[in-house]
Specification:
Oligomer: heterodimer
Helix content of chain B: under 10%
Order of helices and strands of chain B: EEEEEEEEEEE
Helix content of chain A: under 10%
Structural class of chain A: mainly beta
Number of helices of chain B: 0
Shape of chain B: globular
Number of strands of chain B: 11
Radius of gyration of chain A: 13 Å
Number of strands of chain A: 11
Structural class of chain B: mainly beta
Largest sheet of chain A: 7 strands, mixed
Number of helices of chain A: 0
Strand content of chain B: over 45%
Order of helices and strands of chain A: EEEEEEEEEEE
Largest interface: A-B, 25 and 22 residues
Chain lengths: ~110, ~110
């Protein structure tokens, strides 16, 4: 069982609200990632981090932001939620060196009404 | 840019059958290839990881192979069970990349 946790699991929120999705891992991994996945669709990388104070944008443009103040914590924030942000958000971490094995959290399903 | 393709997109088989899921990729310069399972609305569970220097990995009824030269990997599931019903995702970490590249997945349904 991977030691990576996401909260909340489900969130329904009104348009315009600020939200933060939490992700924590206890494996000491430097690399962490956020993926976005619409129902039945493929995963798209939206943010990643090489370690503390490192954040990078991924392949899919996203209005969200991330921070990495502690190794174990990689929260994702939406300043003003919109219905187009409705999706599942998956957090992952991986070993820094070979074999770069990745572990995923259970995901947060976000619905913006 | 690494492109990952999974065939078939969907598969339905009766319980007990052996089956093969396919994954192909365009850039053979990879560190690893990982097969994941995803149940509806859930996160991803890692099934098998094959490092670039390896040819195959086995776990229980699952066997994954890797042929870097041809850009292919297969996931073999023996004696399928209804509990195997899920989406199976192939992902790999390229030498030139910074994160896993995913295929679109194969949706598997095993009927009793």
């Amino acid at each position: 069982e991977a030691d990576i946790y996401q909260t909340p699991r489900y969130l329904v929120i009104g348009t315009g609200k600020k939200i933060t999705l939490e992700c924590s891992q206890t494996m000491g991994h430097d690399k962490m990632y956020w993926y976005q996945q619409d129902p039945g669709m493929e995963l798209h990388l939206i943010h990643y981090s090489y370690g503390v104070n490192s954040t990078e944008k991924g392949d899919l443009s996203s209005e969200s932001t991330v921070s990495r103040i502690r190794t174990e914590h990689f929260p994702l924030t939406l300043e003003s939620a919109r219905p187009s942000h409705t999706s599942q958000y998956l957090c992952a971490s991986s070993t820094t060196g070979v074999p770069y094995e990745a572990f995923f959290g259970q995901g947060t399903r976000l619905t913006v009404v | 840019k690494q492109e990952v393709t999974q065939i078939p997109a969907a598969l339905s088989v009766p319980e007990g059958e052996n089956l093969v899921l396919n994954c192909s990729f365009t850039d053979s310069a990879i560190y690893n290839l990982q097969w994941f399972r995803q149940d509806p609305g859930k996160g991803l569970t890692s099934l098998l990881l094959i490092q670039s220097s390896q040819r195959e990995q086995t776990s229980g009824r699952l066997n994954a192979s890797l042929d870097k030269s041809s850009g292919r990997s297969t996931l073999y599931i023996a004696a399928s069970q209804p509990g195997d019903s899920a989406t199976y995702l192939c992902a790999l970490f390229s030498n030139s990349g910074y994160a896993l590249n995913f295929g679109k997945g194969t949706s598997l349904l095993v009927t009793p």
